[in-house]
Design goal:
The chain is mainly alpha-helical. It has a single domain, classed as 2-methylcitrate dehydratase PrpD. The protein is 65% helix and 6% strand. The protein is built from 8 helices and 2 strands; from the N terminus they run αααββααααα. The chain has a two-stranded antiparallel ribbon with strand order 1-2. It is globular and about 45 Å long. This is IRG1 decarboxylase.
């Protein structure tokens, strides 16, 4: 099936698939997303989401970008950091319109921070996870007839 094939491709990816060019582009995408996200932490919408999210707590926690003294459960940290990235709308984009890094990087970083100290992932593992997320998003975009029609609607 299409879904089975998709799952097999994604499951089969490993660090050996990361070429030098992919690693360099990924680092540039990550740096750009972090920069836009840090700038986005100063927006009103990010401030509101951050304040609202303070009601959540957990034994596992991840960083809220721009707030060294404030951490949230990984799910909410990814959400707040994703809002920060998207609130500026300067993050990378594909055609048709989607912002791949702003959706993927906050989740990957939040999850990587939640690992126990003795199971911390390497930088290469983080790059692999980031690229798998980008690959999943790109493939889902290609499967979507709704996304394919975006340019015609605007």
């Amino acid at each position: 099936t299409i879904t089975g094939n998709f799952a097999n491709v994604i499951h089969g990816l490993n660090a050996n698939h990361l070429t030098d060019q992919v690693i360099e582009r990924s680092k540039r995408m990550i740096l750009d997303t972090l920069g836009v996200g840090l700038l986005g932490t100063r927006t009103e919408v990010c401030h509101k989401v951050t304040q609202y999210s303070k009601i959540y707590s957990s034994d596992l926690s991840s960083t809220i970008w721009g707030h060294l003294d404030f951490r949230l459960p990984p799910l909410y940290a990814a959400f707040v950091n994703g809002v920060a990235v998207h609130s500026m709308d300067f993050d990378d984009t594909w055609h048709p319109a989607t912002h791949p890094s702003g959706a993927v990087l906050p989740a990957v970083i939040a999850l990587s921070e939640a690992f126990p100290q003795k199971k911390k992932i390497s930088g290469l593992d983080l790059l692999l996870a980031f690229n798998v997320g980008i690959e999943v998003q790109g493939r889902l975009l290609r499967f979507s007839s709704e996304a394919r029609n975006i340019p015609k609607r605007y």
